[in-house]
Amino acid sequence: MSETKALESMIGEEYKYGFTTDVEYEDFPKGINEDVVRLISEKKDEPEWMTEFRLKAYRAWTEMEEPSWFNATYEKPKFDKLQYYSAPKNKPKLNSLDEVDPNIRETYEKLGIPLDEQKMLAGVAVDAVFDSVSIFTTFKEKLAEAGVIFCSISEAVHEHPELVKKYMGSVVPVRDNFYAALNSAVFSDGSFCYVPKDTICPMELSTYFRINNMNSGQFERTLIIAEENSHVSYLEGCTAPMYDEHQLHAAVVELIAMDNAEIKYSTIQNWYSGDEDGRGGIYNFVTKRGACRGKSSKISWTQLETGSAVTLKYPSVILQGDNSVGEFFSVAVTNKRQQADTGTKMIHLGKNTKSTIISKGISAGNSNNSYRGQVKISKKADNARNYSQCDSMLIGQTCGAHTFPYIESANPTGKVEHEATTSRVGEEQIFYLQQRGLSEDDAISLIVNGFCKEVLKELPMEFAVEANKLLGIKLEGSVG
Amino acid sequence: MLEIKDLHVEVEGEGIEILKGVNLTVNKGEIHAIMGPNGSGKSTLAKIVAGHPEYEVSKGDILYNGESILELDPDERAHAGVFLAFQYPVEVPGVTNNTLLRESYNTIAASRGREELDPLEFDDYLRDKLELVDMNPDFLERSVNAGFSGGEKKRNEIFQMAVLEPTLSLLDETDSGLDIDALRIVADGINKLHGEDDAVVLITHYQRLLNYIVPDHVHVMIGGKIVKSGGKELAIELEEKGYDWLETHATVNGEAK
């Protein structure tokens, strides 16, 4: 068997999360207009200001044009055919785990995400979002003792309106871009986290997103605020069933870090990526941005992107506070006909601000993997520093890897370093490891893990195993 | 232990014959040296025994412990005790020597029904082996061959051999790129590792290595065939006369080209 074929069969392992859960849904009209936006708001029993926020965003969206500047080609989503709200019929907000629809509980168990607190990994609180609504949040009480608020965004709108009002849209304005505007109009649910002053969040927080309903889009909204001298680490995981149609996922994530605060945000994205011929799969069009508002604050993005048919995603940091630090660590794996255009933006506004970008792209099959990054040093950002490293690994002969770095510096004291490499997993490398007794699967897995090591070690420890497993699933397969 | 019978080998898909009927028998406890000019097929012979996918056997057979191994994958051959010290060891960035060796050792151990070692036991095991090739323990935490000097890479190959304890070691130009001190260390290591139950095949250009490792048999390979075999004195003769007189000999037979 030729090297390429062996590698391709290995990476083409079947998607293991492609099952559907049989759940009854509330009826909701398809398509979008002001009435639909109002109806979403009504379903969620939202206050007037929230409805207005949505309407303002919707009106802005209707005036915006769908972007097409990225390195990907795909059939545009049919916005008038989508269902913008999808909730399981059984009561969406629950007080105890026993009230969760058993089918949904089973789904999370199949995904390896126990909602039962006794069975939880030590120190991880989970918010589970099924289609459009948050199903259950664990460890709430324990977090409350520490003063940490961790709940669904819908709940936060009701329970902590002053915080939501103040911060939502403050990092990603409703008019920021086409998909952010759409999200702002129709967002269904998501996670909210507030860490008060001088508080170290006592456990890892995590949210699992699951798109189940075939025609629904998922528009979640996440807002994390870390007050002065606080620290929080948050992880999101994403999976979806296999359908022939593309599904849209357009999320907005906003992070705010005050003086000396630190937010670590990790993503393990494994949405369904479509089949060999590019049928089906998720469009993952996400706006993620953090603001280092305070002095010496730090925001760190770590992402392991393995799923989705098309990914357009640039988790960014605005370095406002002096001495603030922004980091972006990314592994993006594409295979079959997947297309990923992902990277980051580091906007240096404050003095002595520092940013680090480490991006590892792995392309196989007929996929296309692009890194796109912007480093901007403004006039006032004296002594700003950036280090970027973008490495691409190619597996086989029919995939593509691209790097688009944009550097703008308006301050002569700024220092920007950029390094890029491209390598190919070669027959010789695999033969070498096989000669040392490793199977072809294990050889490739070892090579890829070695390549991604700098990024994987940034993931919270509790999830490192999960990440390795996911890379394994993506890479293992029958050889021969 | 190793029996190569009328082996003809081509580069896969290209139809160019590189080995043109090689016969070689290696018994337990023996050291063989295969010498010859560049492009004679020495390295190909070593790679094909280890199962390199680039080559195709068009005729003949390779028997290992009495059974054909042509259908075995490279890892299965490794499990059976075949080890190739590479002429150009491959870099695997991000994977430490320690990680690779433990995975290799345990995979091979499992396949032979031996006990696997946990990280602590394995660490102890490695320390002893490091001394054999005079390597600094820091080296265990470095990525496999990444940023190694030529000499370090070659020493690493012998270190791996020490750790994996193969029964048939094919050493492909392990001496090239080594300074005289390193050559002595590597040769000492090989001598210590070699015993009654295993066999070593050295592939080399130069007689130099054979001052330190004394072979039982020396073979000269030219144009894809073994054209002459003898004892260790053959190596000395080659050092004096070069390969020309043998090349003439080979062409006379009309089979070299």
List the helices and strands and how they pair.
The complex is a heterodimer of chains A (480) and B (257).
Chain A: H1 3-11, H2 34-43, H3 48-62, H4 102-110, E1 124-130, E2 133-137, H5 140-145, E3 149-152, H6 153-159, H7 161-167, H8 178-186, E4 191-195, E5 204-210, E6 221-226, E7 231-239, E8 246-249, E9 252-257, E10 262-269, E11 281-292, E12 298-305, E13 310-313, E14 316-319, E15 325-334, E16 339-348, E17 354-363, E18 368-377, E19 385-394, E20 400-409, E21 415-424, H9 427-435, H10 440-456, H11 461-475
Parallel strand pairs in A: 1-5, 4-6, 5-7, 6-9, 7-10, 8-11, 9-11, 10-12, 11-13, 11-14, 12-15, 13-16, 14-16, 15-17, 16-18, 17-19, 18-20, 19-21
Antiparallel strand pairs in A: 1-2, 3-4
Helix pairs in contact in A: 2-3, 3-8, 6-7, 9-10, 10-11
Chain B: E1 2-11, E2 17-26, E3 31-35, H1 42-50, E4 55-64, E5 67-68, H2 74-79, E6 82-85, E7 92-96, H3 97-111, H4 119-132, E8 143-144, H5 150-164, E9 168-172, H6 180-193, E10 199-204, E11 217-222, E12 225-230, H7 232-241, H8 244-252
Helix pairs in contact in B: 5-6
